[in-house]
Design brief:
By secondary structure, this protein is α/β, with parallel strands linked by helices. Helices cover about 55% and strands about 15% of the residues. Helix 4 links the parallel strand 1 and strand 2.
């Protein structure tokens, strides 16, 4: 048994070495090793992000100083549903912001009749908030549950601030978040700002650590780079910041699921006609959110997230993905990073893996998978190193994740395979109509 395993490993290693001895001798096999994983298609995106990050670093260090005299009034719409005592941490972190301007906290209680403990927890913070100047708390109960979108639109109607923040009721924030999130609005062309999210329960399990690496590379590093070219791919529903007047002209949030990406696409629908408008990512406006702790919880979350991507890109907004509405840059980026990477790539990976598993001998299959793993490990380590050196503001915490980087390519592979399953589920079952973000009777009444 052990002798067979030893021989298998030795054979795999010799085949792996052969890839580097004469990589072009069998050009068809060489292409086969790369095309399904589309490294040559992903590489330009990595370069674009890295260039954007360097532009950001140079602008931050040597550009004009921030306009500290701009202190607009801010309304924070905290969407609450079953957070219980966790909502108090959110309200406290918003109240204690180092910000001279007025901050209005609107805690919208969706389904308050069923979540009376969350409602009472928020109400108990009113006296605490009243002790701070320029801070107000209004707890708004929606006794009948209507979902996230109805809560956000209610908050938008009640909001008095010039700047509106849509926040999750269980997300906490650094105490300079409001200041950092409002800086981009000094530019009148900025209509929305995507806030930065870190994993709060990073120490809970290996799964939370791997998700933290994912957040740091895809959100912190990725959006920092893309923002420099005005091609931010999404404004997170847990932390989105908007100019209220523009949001009102847009009609607020649209009914349905995945309201964050839906709103982002609708905002980008104006960029073709008004190319001066901008969506900005604010790396230093940092919120902290809890992510799934177990593998089962993670799969359930991504089943909904990735299914919603399929629904939005290929069903609801497929007619919007054109240069006349989005502009050339955002149209190409949505086709590239949205449709291809998010929807097509997972199926290519599944088909490719199944093909080489069936067609090739086990040793060659293992050697190819080792080659692909190492390629993605190099990319992951390189991207994380750039983040760590140039962006990380919590280096001690982020250094602790480096040891798990060898697992990250495997984690990413599983995520992409699961994304294909989520897309199939949406295609067959219309899974977006079975979302926990709103009651079924609300989703059934929407156009889609």
């Amino acid at each position: 048994m052990f002798a067979q395993l030893e021989n298998f490993i030795i054979n795999v290693w010799f085949i792996f070495q052969g890839f580097f001895d004469a990589p072009l001798a069998h050009f068809d096999e060489f292409i086969l090793k790369f095309v399904p994983f589309a490294l040559f298609l992903e590489f330009p995106l990595y370069v674009l992000i890295i260039v954007g990050v360097f532009f950001y670093v140079l602008r931050r260090r040597y550009g004009l100083s921030q306009n500290v005299s701009y202190i607009p009034s801010v309304s924070c719409i905290a969407l609450c549903y079953a957070e219980e005592d966790a909502v108090q941490r959110t309200i406290r972190s918003l109240t204690e912001q180092i910000y001279a301007g007025p901050i209005e906290i609107l805690a919208i209680m969706d389904g308050a009749a069923q979540n009376i403990s969350t409602y009472n927890a928020a109400k108990s913070m009113e006296k605490y908030v009243s002790n701070f100047p320029n801070r107000t708390l209004r707890v708004v109960p929606k006794w009948q549950r209507g979902g996230r979108v109805s809560s956000m639109n209610l908050g938008l109607t009640l909001a008095k601030g010039e700047i509106v923040m849509a926040l999750d009721g269980d997300t906490s924030f650094d105490n300079d978040m409001v200041f950092e999130a409002t800086r981009p609005f000094v530019d009148e062309n900025v209509v929305s700002v995507a806030g930065n999210l870190r994993v709060r329960n990073v120490a809970a399990s290996i799964m939370t650590k791997l998700q933290s690496i994912e957040y740091l590379i895809s959100i912190y590093l990725g959006k920092t780079g893309l923002s420099e070219f005005n091609i931010v791919n999404n404004i997170s529903g847990a932390f989105g910041v908007h100019r209220k007047k523009f949001l009102e002209k847009l009609g607020g949030w649209d009914a349905g699921t995945a309201e964050d990406l839906d709103l982002t696409i609708r905002i980008k629908g104006y960029l073709g006609r008004y190319p001066h408008l901008r969506i900005v990512f604010a790396p230093r406006a940092i919120g902290h959110t809890d992510v799934p702790v177990t593998l089962r919880q993670f799969f359930n979350q991504r089943l909904r997230w990735d299914g919603d991507l399929f629904y939005l890109y290929l069903k609801k907004h497929r007619s919007r993905i054109r240069p006349g509405l989005l502009g050339w840059r955002n149209s190409l980026m949505m086709l590239w990073t949205g449709l291809f990477f998010q929807l097509v790539m997972p199926f290519l990976i599944v088909i490719y893996t199944a093909y080489i598993l069936i067609v090739f001998p086990p040793e060659l299959f293992a050697a190819i998978m080792l080659f692909v793993y190492l390629a993605y490990l190099i990319v992951s380590v390189g991207m994380y190193a750039i983040f760590f050196v140039f962006l990380s503001e919590r280096k001690q915490q982020d250094a602790g994740l480096i040891i798990l980087l060898p697992l990250f390519p495997l984690f990413s592979f599983v995520v992409r395979v699961w994304s294909a399953i989520a897309s199939l589920k949406e295609l067959v079952q219309n899974a977006h109509l079975d979302s926990s973000m709103a009651p079924w009777w609300v989703l059934k009444k929407t156009k889609f």
